[in-house]
Design a protein that fits this description.
The structure is a single chain. The chain is mainly alpha-helical. Helices cover 36% and strands 5% of the residues. The protein is built from 14 helices and eight strands. It has helices at 6-24, 61-71, 81-84, 94-100, 102-108, 131-134, 159-165, 172-179, 201-210, 279-300, 341-354, 359-362, 364-382, 386-389, and strands at 91-92, 123-124, 144-146, 152-154, 306-308, 316-318, 328-329, 332-333. A two-stranded antiparallel sheet has the order 1-2. A two-stranded antiparallel ribbon has the order 3-4. It is globular, with a radius of gyration of 23 Å. Bound molecules: heme C (5 copies). One heme C (HEC) is lined by residues 81-82, 85, 93, 95-96, 98-100, 165-167, 169, 197-199. InterPro entries: Cyt_c7-like, Multihaem_cyt_sf.
């Protein structure tokens, strides 16, 4: 994560103190600030503004730890693209604000007194996932979160927050609608890549029940990954302020050196036969194979080679002459525009699985199923024998 400079640090500190004050005062600062105003002065970890309504001595030490942890996390990273994307527009569009700013989130759930379920107007830039996003008395009343598939999923407490923002923006049905009635292997210039969006952990977690993936007809999909008690919510694994995965508790049930090494399955899904590696390695291998297969299909069936560039939207680009370089028109890269229904749905699933770096822990079964089915679907017109690949679903 990029470090913020001192100026924005100070600005941020002032703004979140304001937010703690406005939104968190009742929920978070449970201790009486007047009881011992000098307590903990010696261990306050960084300079707090001494003037104004905020006095260092009024900050509870417990809060201080939470603040410090949060401050180092992605949620507080003011420099991140996830919060800077709208700088030039100088306001965040309502459609984006519910997840890209605490203020937008509160507007979306009606926690600011506005109507629930909609952000009424543009939101000021500069917000992050602040304290009042999760520490908000009104959140307790949000008992259901709508997913892009249309699913209304019941939630409890702070889970409502994580599930709202980490659900992605599309579902398999969007792809289904886009390709409906078209011949599977005929390129259609109207088809555009459907991007599931980013950090789609909650969508992975709900699996087939959440319907985030393109689910092939006639196939069964694993539902929500229940894992094992007491691992039942996002915060069973993620410390809610640092956002890091706390590995120690995993070791009650797993034997591994890192989360990435965890494996329970005794079968190899990737055809390597290697079951000493974490399940993540199987997912990565099959994802790699799927991307290669999509490219082969683009070249051999759609007759229009593609290049994938993960650093720029929309990620899949045209390389009509097959020289491995992205085609340019007027100095601009040409987005891939020779999609067929078959390649589009496979690319969508590939992106969905890889948009969640934690899919191996959030729902390894669903990830493996989507990858397998997508490879199998492409193998048919390519004349690939699935048996030769030795994959497991
Ligand atoms: C359902 C919640 C949600 C909505 C709605 C949403 N986003 Fe996001 N978006 C996220 C999350 C979560 C991330 C964080 C991904 C990461 O960087 O870890 C993200 C990341 C991004 C990024 C950074 C991508 C990168 O490569 O780092 C951009 C740009 C972005 N969103 C644009 C938009 C735009 C534009 C809209 C509105 C049209 C929008 N988002 C609506 C949840 C959402
Ligand atoms: C992404 C959601 C989220 C954000 C943002 C967040 N918190 Fe928390 N916070 C939580 C959760 C979840 C808990 C644990 C509650 C529980 O266990 O019942 C918690 C607990 C706390 C606690 C209790 C002590 C502890 O660490 O468990 C304090 C104090 C606290 N938060 C302060 C803050 C402050 C101050 C901020 C802003 C700097 C903040 N939180 C931002 C989710 C969040
Ligand atoms: C208001 C929307 C919102 C809410 C609520 C929210 N997140 Fe996030 N989360 C984001 C965005 C946006 C990012 C990307 C931030 C960035 O790129 O700096 C992110 C990043 C993350 C990351 C990756 C951190 C990193 O360093 O890259 C994790 C893990 C995470 N969130 C978990 C959670 C959990 C767990 C909860 C609930 C307790 C939660 N989030 C609630 C929007 C949200
Ligand atoms: C079983 C434990 C577990 C649960 C439950 C869990 N996660 Fe994760 N999460 C992980 C692991 C492990 C990673 C990957 C960390 C890595 O490999 O660096 C991860 C990664 C993430 C990331 C990507 C972080 C990054 O570095 O970009 C986000 C965002 C995230 N989780 C959010 C959530 C949300 C939201 C929930 C609840 C819907 C959730 N997680 C539930 C274990 C868990
Ligand atoms: C209470 C016991 C328990 C704890 C604690 C626990 N797990 Fe698990 N984990 C399981 C069980 C049981 C499964 C198999 C579930 C299934 O496949 O339905 C599993 C499966 C997994 C898998 C998939 C392995 C595979 O081969 O399919 C991963 C990855 C994983 N856990 C990661 C984690 C991480 C990371 C943590 C800590 C943040 C954690 N688990 C904590 C019991 C636990």
């Amino acid at each position: 994560m990029k470090r913020v400079n001192f100026k924005s640090f100070t600005f941020l500190l002032a703004s979140f103190l304001l937010l703690v004050f406005i939104f968190g005062a009742h929920d978070v600062q449970s201790q009486d600030a007047d009881a011992d105003p000098g307590a903990g002065n010696g261990i306050i970890p960084f300079a707090l503004p001494q003037s104004g309504p905020f006095n260092a001595a009024d900050i509870q030490i417990e809060n201080n730890d939470a603040i410090m942890d949060w401050f180092r996390s992605g949620h507080a990273n003011v420099a991140s693209e996830a919060f800077r994307h709208w700088d030039e527009d100088e306001e965040i569009r309502p459609a984006c604000a519910s997840c890209h700013s605490g203020e937008g989130f509160r507007a979306f759930h009606g926690l600011d007194g506005s109507e629930a379920g909609v952000v009424e107007g543009p939101i000021d830039v500069g917000g992050v996932v602040d304290c009042g996003t999760c520490h908000n008395a009104g959140l307790a009343e949000v008992d259901v979160v709508r997913f892009p598939s249309g699913l209304m999923h019941p939630v409890q407490g702070v889970e409502a927050a994580c599930m709202t923002c980490h659900q992605g923006r599309t579902a398999g049905v969007n792809v289904e609608t886009a390709i409906s009635g078209m011949n599977l292997d005929t390129p259609n210039a109207e088809l555009r890549f459907v991007n599931p969006h980013y950090a789609t952990a909650a969508a992975s977690w709900l699996g087939g029940y959440g319907g985030a993936g393109y689910q092939y007809e006639g196939r069964d999909y694993s539902g929500r990954f229940f894992h094992a008690r007491p691992v039942s919510t996002c915060n069973s694994c993620h410390e809610p302020h640092t956002l890091e995965v706390e590995f120690e508790p995993c070791l009650t049930c797993h034997q591994a050196n890192t989360p990435q090494d965890i494996r329970i399955s005794r079968q190899s899904y990737s055809g390597t036969g290697d079951t000493t590696v974490g399940i993540r390695a199987d997912i990565q291998a099959n994802a790699g194979l799927l991307l290669d297969t999509i490219k082969t299909y683009a070249r051999d069936v759609a007759a229009a080679p593609m290049v994938y560039d993960g650093t720029r939207y929309p990620y899949f680009f045209l390389d009509a002459n097959g020289d491995a370089a992205i085609d340019q028109i007027d100095g601009q890269p040409v987005a891939y525009n020779v999609w067929t229904p078959r390649s589009l749905r496979a690319a969508y699933n590939w992106k969905l699985v890889t948009a969640d770096p934690g899919s191996y822990a959030h729902n390894p079964h669903y990830a493996l199923e989507l990858l397998y089915d997508s490879i199998e679907d492409l193998s048919d017109p390519l004349g690939i024998d699935m048996d030769d690949l030795n994959l497991l679903r």
